[in-house]
Amino acid sequence: xxxxxxxxxxxTHIQLNTTTKIFCGCKADSWFDPPNTNICPVCTGxxxxxxxxxxxxxxxxxxxxxxxxxxxxxxxxxxxxxxxYPDLPKGYQISQFDQSIGxxxxxxxxxxxxxxxxxxxxxxxxxxxxxxxxxxxxxxKNAGGRRFVDFNRCGVPLIEMVTGPDLxxxxxxAQYLIRLRQLLRWxxxxxxxxxxxxxxxxANVSIRLKGETGLNPKTEIKNVNSIDAVRExxxxxxxxxxxxxxxxxxxxxxxLEWDEDxxxxxxxxxxETEADYRYFREPDLLAVRLDxxxxxxxxxxxxxxxxxxxxxxxxxxxxxxxDADILTAERSLSDYYExxxxxxxxxxxxxxxxxxxxxxxxxxxxxxxxxxxKLTPAHLAELLKLVDSGKINIxxxxxxxxxxxxxxxxxxxxxxAEGLGLVSDDSAIRAVVEEVLAESPAEVASxxxxxxxxxxxxVGQVMRKMRGKADPNLARQILEELLQ
Amino acid sequence: xxxxxxxxxxxxxxxxxKEVSAVEVLDAHLRRIDAVDGRPGTLDSAPLTDEDRRKVHxxxxxxxxxxxxxxxxxxxxxxxxxxxxxxAGIPVTVKDIFCVKGTPSTAAxxxxxxxxxxxxxxxVERMEAAGAVMIGKVNLDEFTYGSSNESSAxxxxxxNPWNPERVPGGSSGGSAASVAAGEAPLSLGTDTAGSIRQPxxxxxxxxxxxxYGRVSRYGLIAFASSLDCPGPLARSSADAALxxxxxxxxxxxxxxxxxxxxxxxLAELEKGxxxxxxxxxxxxxxxxxxxxxxxxxRQQALPEEMRAAVLHAAEVLAGMGAEIIxxxxxxxxxYGIPAYFVISRVEAASNLHRYDGVKYGYRTRRKPADLRDxxxxxxxxxxxxxxxxxxxxxxxxxxxQYSEQYYNRALKVRAMIRxxxxxxxxxxxxxxxxxxxxPTTPTTAFEMDAVYGDSVLMQYxxxxxxxxxxxxxxxxxxxxxxxxxxxxxxIQLLGPDFSEAELLRIGRAxxxxxxxxxxxxxKPLVLRER
Lengths: 484, 530
Known about the structure:
The complex is a heterodimer of chains A (about 475) and B (about 525). In chain A, about 40% of the residues lie in helices and about 20% in strands. With about 475 residues, chain A is α+β, with helices and mostly antiparallel strands. In chain A, the strands form 5 sheets. Chain A has an 8-stranded mixed sheet. In chain A, strands 5-4-16 form a 3-stranded antiparallel sheet, with no helix packed on it. A two-stranded antiparallel ribbon of chain A has the order 2-6. Chain B is α/β, with parallel strands linked by helices and about 525 residues long. Helix content of chain B is about 35%, strand content about 15%. Chain B is built from 16 helices and 13 strands. In chain B, strand 2 (about 90-95), helix 4 (about 120-130) and strand 3 form a beta-alpha-beta unit. In chain B, helix 2 (about 20-35) packs antiparallel against helix 3 and helix 10 crosses helix 12. The mean pLDDT of chain B is about 95. The interface of A and B includes residues 45, 47, 147 and 283 of A.
């Protein structure tokens, strides 16, 4: 069998997390609202109403466009996309067509070894061919032989972002969505929850012989609501296309629907001709003019991007890629890490270990973000220094994490108040050592007879008597001295 | 002289001096409606009777109870010594293309006949906040698509008070007829290609299309969104100024409304025309018509009577100190209608998409086979011929394969028309005009049924008014005389952006300068022998 490669492009719709809808004052999020309760004359397209653009939508679009390395047009336009559907109350969708806010752009997508065919990590550059603002439509559903329409979602602000046919496997497509979701949350422009439809994805899939450069007829997969489903649906479609091609049949430009429950693709319709949406400029809105002052004000909020920060963590702090990846999965965690490293001043890898082993578990258990912790980066740094200086041992240090988080008090204050510090007073430890030796004549004899491994047992006895607060190194030194 | 023959300003003064009550003013106007308006327009109406042919039929919906409540509220405020607002107690009619909360807002179409608006359009809201008393919603061409009012789904259509065998013009024909017949001193209309100015000219009243963006479009059921302008119809420039004052200004609900301060129009009114530069253009003294056989565009001279009225106005204004600048070239004028055909139809077809039988308004009573069939049946039954024609043409010229040669080309023509005005009004240019003086219409009001049915010829009735819509500049039509057929002749003044105060001032000066002329004393036919 000849070797095939997949050619995949993803069309994403990103729901922005603005307070209000794109063209009216209704709140943007209707997740908990009964149908048709979060609507007004404007978003339901009553006769005579007019749209007024929510500036926050432009600001979030500009942030995303900048993060995708897209050119940001200083003047962009809204257009009408005309078509009939019951969930589209005006009979046209206000969208952007030829002069959208973003032009071009790309994402350098790191593909981890685990997702690579030859188990070698690499980077895939994914081009962006479309990045524009638009309004969402409502929803329809069939029940009891009737068709119902819910307009709550009408006018929810969306970014439509489309990639070029640059992805080469289902795994790459999944990686793209993982990185996009990370970026959207990082920028604070979307909750990017696929299950809630904040991030929707259609996949265009075709195959070709390896080495070919042309594009073959593609199918479009719709209704995929999770990253796993995207991966699975694309895998199945690639396999189907290879099977069809091998059997000598042509691939037709179908639209396919992913059936999540059955795990199969179903044909929705054939695509004979492209629909003509008769786009023209939306006369009810003025051009979006992004003057320098506004643009700069928006871009002041553009943070270092996750993939850049990830690379920097490796270079600057000498972290393994694995650590850097986890620590930059989410923006506030990476901010937290960096603040803790600065406050600590010691080995950045040690901070990483504490964060990844203990603090992350704390976050996951409580469902918190790093920025929500009472255990501040300064607290963590202070705690590490207490361990380093021998004021407390590691076990106490780990127990302290929870205590700081609970009380919001500083680690030093808790150590002080609860007497958790190690005893490094020579005479106090010496007294206990003498006590232990006096109580254990048999063990002393064995030790002196050459059973040096008993040292551990002696240290244990001292620690037990001092409830773990003795400085173990000092205890060992005194024991060695007195057992000579 | 009855109360309903007084101007809005005169009524305002009588009310403020408590010489009349708002309820008395209202009752006078309701009596006038009872006397001259005849039966209101309805769907599937009975054939016209001889009686119908003598009436005005301006109204679709009378809002007597609402009006009475508003008038009583004004009287209470007057009695309490409160300021009841600049339009307090003044009856107004509203073109039924504006949404007014709790009233049927039909756009004169079957498809919206059952639609009751849940909100009020900004200009209406502002008039009511100023104390105006809305006495009813007046008829129009279906969705404003016409220049005669004959296309209304609500028949009988309005008739011209000067001669009920003639059309009142359109699409604000009900507005113009109601004002001319003394049913209300003020009416709110809309102008997309001349829909305020042309009926104002036909009915012998003042009609102003303000600068695009001067008056909010929020609540105006859209025809061509980039051209639609709400504006006043009145019996004098001063009344038009009073009304414009109330409705003009920025609106947070209309992104295309202009953030330009509103001047005090009444304060500017009496300043005269001394030193103003008023232009005449040869391009407005010739008419353009397509040959019905070949489609070729032919030029012909403006009828002499129309031309004479404009030249007479120029003389009057010159006599009052204005400087008349002749031969101002406006070469793109002749392309106004063809470009308008394209732009307005594209926008109209899109604006009509929402009437699909799903959410509100008319839905077919026949059982649809599927969703497409629901749309098809609903729209086939709900829309009259004008919306259908406009949908067909709009869909055609905006199709991907044609939009470059039609729509984008029309937009270029539109820019050329704008350039003509920019050149004429450029304060440091050759002409430096304060205003351009033109005829409003090619002819006086035509006979009912004479043009209706020829949609192209009907459209050409707007050829002298449509350039201002393309350019976005303000225009006003003033009564300029009476022709030999006994019908009013309109003259038009066009000015630079936001020059409404100057246009009203010129209008006022012209009214003062012609106050003694015999034609000023002639009343509309339906009001004679009263």
